Amino acid sequence: MGGSWISEGDVDPVSIAQQRSRNLGLYTRALLAAQMNAAIAIVEQNEHLVRKLARTLFERKCLSAEDVRAVIQASG
User: With a threshold of 0.85, does the pTM exceed it?
Assistant: First the structure.
């Protein structure tokens, strides 16, 4: 009863490990892409809030028009 423990029809454990490794790579890239999209959304929201704050400070005479333009230009 010697021989390989893999019988006919069984899947090669190396193939299974390779497929799991590829899947893990795909999952990792998908997770990183989702995190990047979330980070971009946060930055865009922060830029919006900075511009809104600059306008509010201008209306309250705390910032000059030139300062507001600089803030808006710098925030994208």
Answer: no
